[in-house]
Please model this.
Amino acid sequence: MLRIYHIEARRSDRVVWLMEELGLDYELIFTPKDIAASLMAIKAVHPIGAAPTVRDGDLWLCESGAILEYVVNRHGGGRFGVKPDAPGYPQYLQWMHFAEGSAMGRIINEMMIAPMLAASGAPKPPIAGLFAGNSRRLLDFFEQSLAGQDYFAGEDFSAADIMMLMPVRAARRACQGEVRPNVEAWCARVEARPAYARMLARALPNGPPPTLAGWPKEDAQPV
Amino acid sequence: MLRIYHIEARRSDRVVWLMEELGLDYELIFTPKDIAASLMAIKAVHPIGAAPTVRDGDLWLCESGAILEYVVNRHGGGRFGVKPDAPGYPQYLQWMHFAEGSAMGRIINEMMIAPMLAASGAPKPPIAGLFAGNSRRLLDFFEQSLAGQDYFAGEDFSAADIMMLMPVRAARRACQGEVRPNVEAWCARVEARPAYARMLARALPNGPPPTLAGWPKEDAQPV
Model:
């Protein structure tokens, strides 16, 4: 049985959500949201100390995108994945990687790092200017990519939608008050899934993460 | 034919390297290393403006990890990929995602963002302390993961090695003077590949990126 090292309101939500979608049993090692404590808890068992980390027999695996692909193809019979010969495969791959590759870093740079640099009162380093508008640019890209399709990889819900909810919510928070109809409809669609509700009950017992509040500093990648 | 939008010394090297490994033709849209100019060049054709971006007929795709998987499975007949039933599959997935998911962000936080915050002279925000030691921790994880195996996914060279060279070099630069024998041997092994030399000639005509100099600021993710 898959053991999931989980920290509340971090990327390990994604693994719990996929397990609930697939109806697979799992063991949840739950750590309440607390950066210092949670890092120590997972560093005690794995050198990187990230959430999610999973253990499956003798195998240890970290990195949410990798874990979702692993579960889909080794435990889920391919459900919620997209096969190489399917039309949605390129988009599936792009969003599986984009969520953590380009999206989260750019949003964090704009919403956390740039304000820290600004608050320092020092002359603004030239690179900080490049962060401005990241979240809006991403949100526009998501909006355009969801035109005429219900999910990120096309007609069907997939693991790519699970990967993308965090950066989509973060970009929406950053651009609060601005409406992107395709993005709003997609959020409502994925958040209405019964497996999403079961994930919330198990992985976020203290309530879902804020949707339209300011970017919470403690949500940042801690290391 | 795949058209690769490439900026010198950025992540688009990876796509060129894989195409050279596979012996596939490609069209290279080359932009010399210059952040402002290169961003504008790619933003003119794609909303995110990242390197790599590729065009394949009517399809546009960004994100290096996704592009490598796409090329492996749609153009390369699966060569340099690892199939779900192969023993190295979990590791292959982990490193394909880890390179940009956890590794590069953590190194950039330690080597660029923390020094910017320190140079500002402002009181250090608590989160900055969490960045310290990131690169050393990563390098130790790489060293341990390469024990008893020649490549990141096991016995055979794969796209995961192409993904990992950039974060491995960055972590080595950050810990210069410290020796990790498995990591050193792996670097020598992958950099000795004829396709790597062909990539350097086409994608880095002004010389390879520095190996042991200080972390070059202009190598950062620009947005």
Summary: The beta strands of chain A are 2-7, 26-31, 53-56, 59-62. Confidence is low (pLDDT under 50) at residues 211-223 of chain A.
